[in-house]
Amino acid sequence: MADKIDDIELSDFGLRLAHLDGNLDLPAFKDILEHHKFEAELQITEDKTVQIKLIGFYDDKVELGTNIKNFQDKIKSATKLEWQFENHNFHETCVVKDGFQINIFDVAVEITLTLVIV
User: Fold this and answer.
1) Got the DSSP string for 78-105?
2) Does the pTM of the predicted model rise above 0.85?
3) What is the pLDDT of residues 11-65, one digit of tens each?
4) Cα–Cα distance between 67 and 61 in angstroms, integer?
5) Are the CB atoms for 36 and 30 separated by under 8 Å?
6) 46, 35 in Cβ contact below 8 A?
């Protein structure tokens, strides 16, 4: 079973999931006040988010640059994307929140991003 963004495997970008953490079990709405005649109007949504860390190791800096550019193009290709992490039973439509953070170590990369489940 492969981890995917839409129909593209993360391994196609030379990446794999290193860590997944988030508040998946939050209710869709959070009550501000428990008892109020306008209670329905006082509900706010609370984002269900996950933070993921991806890592990749490449043969050279050219390969690293090409794969990261392709990954960036993919996550910018649509507002909503299907993210699948089979070992975590995660299959959700998500929006990438605030882009991603990237750390490059010679020919290795670590990418951290936050996904908002929609």
Assistant:
1) -SSEEEEEGGGTEEEEEEEEEEEEEEEE
2) no
3) 999 999 999 987 665 555 454 445 555 555 555 567 788 999 999 999 999 999 9
4) 10
5) no
6) no
Cβ-proximal residues to 111 (8 Å cutoff; 6+ apart), any chain: 15, 53, 54, 55, 56, 68, 71, 100, 101, 102, 103
Residue 12 tokens read as 């196609």
C-alpha distances in Å from residue 86, one per residue of 9, 16, 20, 35, 110: 11, 12, 12, 41, 20
Instruction: Report the distance separating Cα 77 and Cα 99, nearest Å.
Output: 13
Distance between CA atoms of residues 37 and 49, nearest Å: 30
pLDDT at 93: 94
